[in-house]
Amino acid sequence: MNKLTIGIIFSLLLPFNILLAQDAKVLFQEIRWKQGNSQEKKKATELLWERVKYKIQQAAWEGALNDLDKLHLMDSSDHWLYAVRARVYENTYHPLEALNDYRRALVLGGDSTLMLTGMAQSALYLDRYDVALVYLTEAIEYGEKDWSLFSQRGKVYVQLMRYEAAERDFEQAVMLNPDADEVWYHRASLAVGKKEYQKALGFIANARHLSPEKMEYAIMEALILGEAGDLHWAVNSYSSLLERDPVNLVVLNNRALLYMKMNRFTKAMADIEKAIRLAPEQPDLYLSRGLIKEFQFDFEGACQDWLKASELGSKEAENYFYDDCR
Question: Could you tell me which residues the TPR repeats occupy (predicted)?
């Protein structure tokens, strides 16, 4: 079989009528293959791969998995089969199966950096940050200096609360690629956690300069201003963002909490009520409304909101309820 690359996932789309014809061809070739004809086995394999490519393009994940399982019966030594199947498993939220297939692909000769990175992502889906750290470290050791690997590992270090190691990786990432806006964003977030607000503002300014269209960077800048105590500047920043996106839940929620800190409760409630109307099943919004009510000494109303948020899945709201409402 011709050498395949991971780009198989993004191959050209087959027309639907060709797919129907391919189904018939695949069935015919599978019957011939079972009779032991090596040429027919090769043809069946090629046709199955074509159908896999089409089904992946259509996000028909179960169908793609069925065909990949058939290819596995035909040839269980093809490392690309495991690599592609791992990607399909990721898209169907089966991280453990994806991790196992990436491991098999690595053993069979798959690209070490690519497979190890895939294994790390699968471990992250499983919340195994310690395991992901091992795989990313191995990927960095195997491959060339790739800024994205340092960025990914830096984020894992943050989850493990190893902030100095995270900062070293982010620094390495921007040395390798100063135009990596996402790394500047992560550095800003890390600086906020350390209450280094001026440094954080410098980092987020770099991110916004590189990608001025990204809303999350502008939101982060407003958040940093608020954390630094510049409440009026932060409110003005959020107000400007709402002119761009009047129904942005994060911005409405954040501005409501700032108004609360400024004792502007009418405006705070207006923002949070609008957000709840837009997303009545979002638990964090009830958590915030509960905080605003608590600031106004409406303890019963606060407890009702925290109970609602906890019922919708907010652990933080559950803690508020059990600490303050029982």
Answer: 147-180, 249-282
Can you read off the two tokens belonging to residue 229?
């105590």
**What angle, rounded to 10 degrees, do the helices at 181-193 and 215-227 form?**
20
How do residues 42-82 score in pLDDT, each as one tens digit? 777 888 888 889 899 889 999 999 988 888 888 888 888 89
For 59-94, b/e burial (b = at least 16 CB within 10 A) is: ebbebbbebbebbeebeeebbbbbbbbbbbbbeeeb
Q: Give Cα separations from 132 to 109, 160, 165, 319 (angstroms).
A: 20, 11, 15, 30
Q: What angle do CA 65, 67, 72 make, to 5 degrees?
A: 90
Q: Tens digit of pLDDT for each residue in 77-126?
A: 888 889 999 999 988 899 999 999 999 999 998 788 889 999 999 999 99
The predicted model scores a pTM of 0.73
Q: H or E element: which one contains 205? A: helix 197-210
